[in-house]
Amino acid sequence: MATPTSAPSRVAVFAKAPVPGQVKTRLVPALGGEGAAALHRALVTRAIEAAIAAGLGPVELWCAPDARDPFFRSCGERFGVSLVSQHEGDLGARMRGAFDTMLAMSARALLIGSDIPAMTAAYLRAADAALAEGCDAVIGPAEDGGYVLIGLRRADCGVAPELFEGIDWGGPGVLQETRSRIARLGWRHRELPVLWDLDRPEDLSRLEVPFEGMPRALGRDDG
After folding, report:
1. How far apart are the C-alpha atoms of 157 and 54, rounded to whole Å?
2. Which one, of 135, 134, 136, lies nearest residue 159 by Cα?
3. CA 14: distance to chain centroid?
4. Where are the beta strands (DSSP E) in 77-131?
5. How many Cα neighbours within 13 Å face the side chain of 211?
6. Are 175 and 147 in contact (CB under 8 A)?
7. E strands of 38-135, at which residues?
8. 207 near 217, Cβ under 8 Å?
9. Residue 196 pLDDT class (50, 70, 90 cuts)
10. Where is average pLDDT lowest: 8-12, 72-76, 157-161?
11. What is the pLDDT of residues 46-74, one digit of tens each?
12. Number of C-alpha atoms within 13 angstroms, CB side, residue 218?
């Protein structure tokens, strides 16, 4: 594994095990449990590929509830990414734990979800550039009021817990609350263009280009 000196940045991809009926649950009425799980696997694969293509440093797949699922193991073997079990607690506690770990080894760290079809290597490079240029934090806003990416630069006082504690992660105010907390910390931050995440049946029509592993029912081949 690369050392902190040779790898100033790390990228974490957060993902749940693709258990039918437990992932992409709002898509189950449209795709069925197996179809929703297959789409989830395809989206995780796509996120890993974007992170690797960005060429920023080690890519880590942070797995929930742990790294034992066969899909995660296959990702580790196929892409050479590290598998890390997510910490316990709510999403905020798990994200903070990931940043604590990554920033102990590298000066900059990015964390992305696994359900953002529009995430690209260029987007990740832009996020890392913001941190390299002196921003304390970088955010990729989501259309639904959350965010698809958050990046932090190593600080002498460690990861600020207030960025991740006491936030209603399922609500529409995540992004605005995070902005407010960054402002109270007196941090410099940058925001990237807004992206969308694939979470609801109406989002399926936005998949203009099929990608590897996509359920056959979502393909655009009419021939």
Report:
1. 28
2. 136
3. 5
4. 82-85, 108-112
5. 19
6. yes
7. 59-64, 82-85, 108-112
8. no
9. very high
10. 157-161
11. 999 999 999 999 999 999 999 999 999 99
12. 27
